[in-house]
């Protein structure tokens, strides 16, 4: 109900005021508080935004964990005005059970994958090296999910101290980067096996693949090292924050966030198109290797899209809404962005599905351990290389014979010209 004092509007929406009067001074102090003058932007942990202390809050609004500023939610205000950060209990209530379920499923699936790759997979191939690296990246996430569950159960209140917060954010960000990098490496490895089977990289040894994976890990750790150098500002523990203008560290984090999605996706789509064209032009449709490569890449794209696309869409929408000062839209977009982090963490659950498609040996061993197969089968190759079809070999032989015939004709013509010139 609207409350007035001397014909002057005090606040847009106030509960019913007894005696048609309000405590106007207290409301004016609340509305003119310092937290209303803060600009808003997606902010990084390394450059925290100032938050109002409990000493400046009115007595009728005591501080609580549920009312602490959140990284991704805002009060819906009128377009064109300042947007004010606040928390969302709905996001916390959604993320806590979802992350707990992802922890259980991811731990079971990746423990099984690690056991199969290390104990039952012999010999290793270059593809196995990249799959094991993906398992290692998933364990980085799984080991940190219990802390995130506790964080959201307490309504975005971090209680483990600044060092643990920075390490937690570093591990989560490293998992995302490593998942993207090694999914791309698996896709490009399949591309080389099918499209360029005679290339030196296609025939790389397990040791060479391990060195490549080690170099990728070093780059991944360096790209996310800035999260360990930031400063902690409780009670929240998030790598993004609605707060002051972005720092250099935040701009780097945002650029990396976008680049590590669009660049690998472009490479994966290039690999899919190239393999499809190769299968069609060389008549490889009936062979298991190339068809398995296409299935692997289809699963890679599915995992990639489900896990990472929602956060990209809502993150970009949040930045656009902030630039336009559309507070109500920003409120919705930032809550969706925060909730979409559950899809990002879902990659640890979906990656074992990729292992089944990428490695026939892994699928066979999984069925054997679960008691779903009878008898014992021989080893299954994990490589996706191919042997050209009979039609393609015949066509290539005809082309070579035709080329040789043309060269012979040209040689005879040149000899005749030389003989006539000498005569």
Automatic annotation (TrEMBL):
- What are the subcellular locations of this protein? Membrane
Q: Where are the transmembrane segments?
A: 94-117, 129-147, 167-188, 208-229, 255-275, 296-324
InterPro entries reported in the protein's UniProt record: GPCR_Rhodpsn, GPCR_Rhodpsn_7TM, HCARs
Q: Where is the signal peptide?
A: none
User: Record's GO cellular component, any one?
Assistant: plasma membrane
PROSITE patterns, per database record: G_PROTEIN_RECEP_F1_1 (PS00237), G_PROTEIN_RECEP_F1_2 (PS50262)
Bias category Low complexity: which stretches? 45-58
Q: G-protein coupled receptors family 1 profile domain location, by residue?
A: 109-355
Q: Which GO terms describe its molecular function?
A: G protein-coupled receptor activity
Alphabetic keyword roster: G-protein coupled receptor, Membrane, Receptor, Transducer, Transmembrane, Transmembrane helix
Q: Where is this region: Disordered?
A: 45-80
Q: What is the topology of this protein in the membrane according to its UniProt annotation?
A: Multi-pass membrane protein
Q: Which SUPFAM superfamilies match?
A: Family A G protein-coupled receptor-like
Q: Which family does it belong to?
A: Belongs to the G-protein coupled receptor 1 family.
Listed PANTHER family: HYDROXYCARBOXYLIC ACID RECEPTOR 2 (PTHR46048), OXOEICOSANOID RECEPTOR 1 (PTHR46048:SF1)
Write the protein's name.
G-protein coupled receptors family 1 profile domain-containing protein
Source organism (scientific name):
Macaca fascicularis
């Amino acid at each position: 109900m609207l409350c007035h004092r001397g014909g002057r509007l005090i606040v847009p929406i106030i509960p019913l005021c007894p005696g048609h009067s309000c405590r106007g001074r207290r409301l004016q102090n609340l509305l003119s508080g310092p937290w209303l003058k803060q600009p808003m932007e997606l902010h990084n942990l390394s450059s925290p935004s100032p938050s109002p202390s409990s000493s400046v809050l009115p007595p009728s609004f005591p501080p609580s964990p549920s009312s602490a500023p959140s990284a991704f939610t805002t009060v819906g205000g009128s377009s064109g005005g300042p947007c004010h950060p606040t928390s969302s209990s709905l996001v916390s209530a959604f993320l806590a059970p979802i992350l707990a379920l992802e922890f259980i499923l991811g731990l079971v699936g990746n423990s099984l994958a690690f056991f199969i790759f290390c104990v039952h997979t012999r010999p290793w191939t270059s593809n196995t090296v990249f799959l094991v690296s993906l398992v290692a990246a998933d364990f980085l996430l799984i080991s940190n999910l219990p802390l995130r569950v506790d964080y959201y159960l307490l309504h975005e209140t971090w209680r483990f101290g600044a060092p643990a917060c920075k390490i937690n954010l570093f591990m989560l960000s490293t998992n995302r980067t490593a998942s993207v990098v090694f999914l791309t490496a698996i896709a490009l490895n399949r591309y080389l096996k099918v499209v360029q089977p005679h290339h030196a990289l296609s025939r790389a040894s397990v040791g060479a693949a391990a060195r490549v994976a080690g170099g990728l890990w070093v780059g991944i750790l360096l790209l996310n090292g800035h999260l360990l150098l930031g400063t902690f500002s409780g009670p929240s523990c998030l790598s993004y924050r609605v707060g002051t203008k972005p720092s250099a560290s935040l701009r780097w984090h945002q650029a990396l966030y976008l680049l590590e999605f669009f660049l690998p996706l472009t490479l994966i789509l290039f690999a899919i198109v190239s393999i499809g064209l190769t299968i069609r032009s060389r008549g490889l449709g009936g062979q298991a290797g190339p068809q398995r490569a296409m299935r692997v890449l289809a699963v890679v794209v599915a995992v990639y899209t489900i896990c990472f696309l929602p956060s990209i869409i809502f993150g970009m929408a949040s930045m656009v809404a902030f630039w336009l000062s559309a507070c109500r839209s920003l409120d919705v977009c930032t809550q969706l962005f925060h909730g979409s982090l559950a899809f990002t963490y879902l990659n640890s659950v979906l990656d074992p599905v990729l292992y089944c498609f990428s490695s026939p040996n892994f699928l066979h061993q999984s069925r054997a351990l679960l008691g779903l197969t009878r008898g014992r089968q021989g080893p299954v190759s994990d490589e996706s290389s191919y042997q050209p079809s009979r039609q393609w070999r015949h066509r290539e032989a005809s082309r070579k014979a035709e080329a040789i015939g043309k060269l012979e004709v040209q040689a005879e013509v040149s000899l005749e010209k030389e003989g006539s010139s000498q005569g």
